[in-house]
Write a structure and sequence with these properties.
Largest sheet: 2 strands, antiparallel
Oligomer: single chain
Radius of gyration: 17 Å
Helix content: 40-55%
Number of strands: 2
Number of helices: 6
């Protein structure tokens, strides 16, 4: 698009850092309600149930990309909306969009891995544990990066140990 700056000398804080932040915020603004829709009883068995066959996803992309084509289209539409909004609001640079797609893909894989990653940057909280809770309790934690959407929808649940046993590690330990 002609609306996306491509020259390296056009890089500035607004079209890089602010744009990247906005993309992750807007992505979950659209993704969390769309994901919640995929859990609606009349829809769930036909589209999203297949993805949830893994209660404790640990295979990275194999589990993250294990989705119905309609689910994939919904996710891509949410991602496109995030990029479109950032381009319109901040003039997002092509380099920023490139990094957004790569970070988004890496975090989707981490969400379906055994690694315990938890990062909060300016209110955006990325937590593999939050996504694990979603796979264990299907009616919770629909967002990926901004748990504020789940808090607004009343669907946020903090991470809990199941039976006092760590579930993310292959060498689970009983905690007392």
């Amino acid at each position: 698009s002609e609306d996306v700056p491509k020259a390296l000398n056009a890089l500035q804080p607004l079209n890089t850092l602010a744009a990247l932040y906005l993309m992750f915020l807007v992505l979950d603004f659209f993704y969390a309600p769309a994901h919640r829709f995929l859990h609606w009883r009349p829809v769930y068995p036909y589209i999203h149930k297949h993805h949830h066959r893994q209660i404790f996803p640990v295979r990275g992309y194999l589990d993250a990309g294990n989705e119905h084509p309609i689910e994939h289209i919904i996710g891509v539409a949410c991602t496109w909306m995030a990029v479109w909004c950032a381009v319109r609001v901040t003039g997002a640079h092509a380099v920023t969009i490139f990094f957004f797609f790569n970070i988004h893909a890496a975090l989707a894989m981490l969400n379906h891995s055994p690694y315990d990653v938890d990062v909060t940057i300016l209110g955006l909280n990325y937590s593999v544990k939050a996504h694990e809770m979603h796979h264990r309790k299907f009616t919770t934690n629909y967002a990926q990066y901004w748990m504020g959407m789940d808090k607004m929808m009343g669907t946020f649940k903090p991470y809990i140990l199941e039976g006092g046993v760590m579930t993310r590690n292959s060498s689970s330990k009983k905690l007392s």
